Amino acid sequence: MKPRSFLTAAVLLIGASIASAQPAAAPAARAGGRPPGPLRDPHSPGYVDATELPDGQVPPVEADGNFIIGRTHIPAPEMSPVAPGEPKGTIYKFTLRSTESRFYPGIARDQPAGGAAAPPGAMGGTVTSHPQPWTRTVSVYVPQQYVPGTAAPFMITCDGDGRAFNVLDHLIPQKKVPVMIVVAIPNGGGDGQGSERGLEYDTVSGKYSDFVETEVLPMAEKVAHVVLTKDPDGRAVMGTSSGGSCAMIAAWFHPERYHRVFTFSGTYVNQQWPTDPEYPHGAWGFHETLIPNSPVKPLRIYMECGDRDNYNARDGMHDWVQANEAMAKVLTAKGYHYKFVFARGAGHTDRPTIGELYPTALEWVWQGYPITGN
Q1: Cβ contacts of residue 302 below 8 Å, gap of 6+?
Q2: What is the reported pTM?
Q3: CA atoms of 197 and 272, how far apart (whole Å)
Q4: 51-365 CATH
């Protein structure tokens, strides 16, 4: 097993609102791709105070608060399949089609040419879209330890993320997490403003949660022959990038459905399209107004970002590091149970970093839920 840190850490209360930390100039764009984010120092003025861990160590499972991890990111052993003969979950699959959806008939972004004026900050200067149907295959992980007919806790993963499958094959027999189901839901296609993925994940409303609740979960139960708990404490939602903002949005608007949120490089920035006068800054509004101005909700929130996470100067609301730092600050001020990990040597949704953190992050997310029946 990879060594774990046994440091104890208390949540550090931080009062002032986040200051503008000017990032270093970004390197030149890689050929044909997004430019790498500028290198950020986690000790920049205005960033949260955090416990810095020795390189190669991950935050202790039991601790809330803010942590900085080093540049060496070796995926944990639990990311690999279990040995032959060990208990292993079963994956069931089913297909969703836009023609059968009451929520998302399907869109795709037009090429950035012409069109109506875009909302502030929209990439490409203008955003237009056209109808486009989608088809997606949902995967449902059922652990071998599941008792048929019993109501099981579960986790939704955005973008069809199946990394939890191997991890749970390891952690469930060790009684580190409950016997749980995973419903991995792919997005509807594309990325960014004007795309189906952007519409589903960056829209600040309860719509995506309603889609999952009424069109996805009943099919998951039917196809996988499981019963999914209605207890919000036994329900989690996880995502990376805009899937992370989707996870937070789903729980925020429906805390009676989800109490546990799990994000890597969460897009807590101004990506919403079309714009909504009630939430004009999209998910940037979480740390700007929504969390500060609302009563505390019964949410447990895990967040990670990297020192080279996404940055775009176009509207002052597209800095992923500042957004995650600001989330940590407001969550502390409001007294939430949260954990924030700043990863050195990591870019946006950095795979080795996610692999390093995923098992202990999953354990932390599920702390407090009864572990029985393993």
Answers
A1: 261, 262, 263, 338, 339, 361, 364, 365
A2: 0.89
A3: 11
A4: 3.40.50.1820
